[in-house]
From TrEMBL:
This is AMMECR1 domain-containing protein. Residues 1-79 form the AMMECR1 domain. Transmembrane segments: none annotated. PROSITE patterns: AMMECR1. It holds the Pfam family AMMECR1. It comes from Synchytrium microbalum. Gene3D superfamilies: Hypothetical protein ph0010, domain 2. It comes from the Eukaryota. InterPro entries: AMMECR1, AMMECR1_dom_sf, AMMECR1_domain.
Length: 82
């Protein structure tokens, strides 16, 4: 299982920024925690200057998910069995 991140932040201009990444995104990109947080801020539409003060206002929710890999043939079998 891999941990993912979802967060909300109320900015200085009272705009709510909320976004999420699938758990595997940050590790696949090779991001540090700070880089992942900054990327989440931009993805959520935050256009201001990213400072430590901004990062400290983040309300972070972590979650876990599982990622499975199957062949297309296995997918078709599962789909027809449903």
């Amino acid at each position: 299982m891999v941990s993912g991140s979802n967060f909300e932040i109320m900015t200085i201009t009272n705009e709510l920024v909320s976004t999420t990444y699938l758990p595997e995104v940050a590790p696949e990109q090779g991001w540090t925690k700070i880089e992942a947080i900054d990327s989440l801020l931009r993805k959520g539409g935050y256009s201001g200057r990213i400072t430590d003060q901004v990062r400290q206002k983040i309300v972070l929710t972590r979650y876990q998910s599982s990622k499975y890999t199957i062949t297309y043939e296995e997918y078709l079998k599962l789909k027809s069995a449903a």
